[in-house]
Amino acid sequence: MRKKLLTSTLMGVLIILAVIVAVATAGCGTATQAAALPQAGPTDAQGILTQAFTSSDHITSGTGDFNVSVTIDADAGKLPAGAGAFLSQPITLSGTFAFSDDPQAAEATINASIAGQTIPVGLKAVDDKVWVQFMGQWYEAPADMMGAGATGTTAKEPDMAGILQALTAAGVDPTTWMTNLKVVGEDSIDGTPTYHLSGTIDMSKIMTDVVKLMQDKTIQGMLPSVGSGAPGGTGSSITMPSQEELQAVQGQLSTMFQNLTLDMWIAKDTYQFRQVELKATIVPPAETTASTVAQATPTTDTATNALLAGAAQGIKSISIDATVSVAPAAAPLTVTPPAGAKPFSELEQSLSGLMGLFSGALGGAATGQ
Fold first, then answer.
1. Contact assessment for residue 133 and residue 338, using Cβ atoms and an 8 Å cutoff
2. CB neighbours (10 Å) of residue 282?
3. Total tally of structural domains belonging to the chain
């Protein structure tokens, strides 16, 4: 029970942080806005960060790239053979993206590298239509996969003003989530002069605020849901833990996240985020590595649960290094719907085999095989 609660809580925390970081990095404006809004402002670290979060400008169209690397330090002798081979190399995600508000459109090219194998994935979106490309073939996602939010209303991309208003109403100030915040220096990101800020993320403070946020109806409405169209889904949305459950694992999550640092590059003229780099080390809790292994069963463990419970029996730590860069675009994005897109159910069938291999490799330790 604690393992499943820890997994769902961790997912909720990461979703909330992802929404906030995504909105923050999207606040870079268009090329015209950047040229028209030179301004004098704070030059101290806390003042720069506060100004960046409270900037009234928001992006209308932009491009960017991202790189995520996950390295797992494990005791090979305690892992099943499949998991040892699977986790021996870093898992990486990299790619580029572009988006615009009017018209609402987005596209991305993603390369996932797992166990030395590269898997290309593509994404296109226009208004409420979404297409996913896998192994060179496009598939049309069902409307309920991206449309309905936690509150049952049509999902909308949150903007900075909406996020900040909801955070303020919930009594949360993201600028207090960092300690040892300092201005490292001044850099140039794609020709834009920026302040380079660095600090340590206070996971305990974040968890205190997450307890508030995950119970806030406005914030819940901004979070994505996992509908029945999600690969491997069960037809239900992510279940947010109760406040009592969150408080029960608050200390555990704070202990899991170690060496959690964040570097930010903020434009000097507009105080808008241009690049964010996150580094973290996650150490599985002792009870996950041992006591929960006996509780795990093939019918209750997903691949994620197997990683946190079964395969974690031999995992010492997980290191994450993620960088997201955003640049303004001079014109709105135009997305052409792909021709020959197949039903999404066919993609689910293709992915089920991969998920089975993944679960088999990682779940051996959890199931005693």
1. yes
2. 19
3. 1
pLDDT, tens digit (0-9, with 9 covering 90-100), for 172-185: 888 888 899 999 99
Question: Does a structural domain hold residue 6?
Answer: yes
pTM of the prediction? 0.72
Per DSSP, the residues of 258-300 read EEEEEEEEEETTT--EEEEEEEEEE---HHHHTTTTTT--TTT
Residues in Cβ contact with 263 at an 8 Å cutoff, skipping those fewer than 6 apart: 184, 196, 197, 198, 276, 277
Any domain includes 179:
yes
Q: CA-based angle 67:68:74, to the nearest 5?
A: 150
Give the whole-angstrom CA distance, residue 156 versus residue 326.
20
144 Cβ contact partners less than 8 Å away, ≥ 6 residues apart: 227, 228, 229
Cβ distance 237 to 221 under 8 Å?
no
Is there a domain that residue 329 lies in?
A: no
Is 98 domain-assigned? no
Domain containing residue 37: 2-58+69-90+142-321+343-367
User: 352-367 pLDDT, tens per residue?
Assistant: 766 655 555 554 444 4
Q: Note whether 106 and 123 are within 8 A (CB).
A: yes
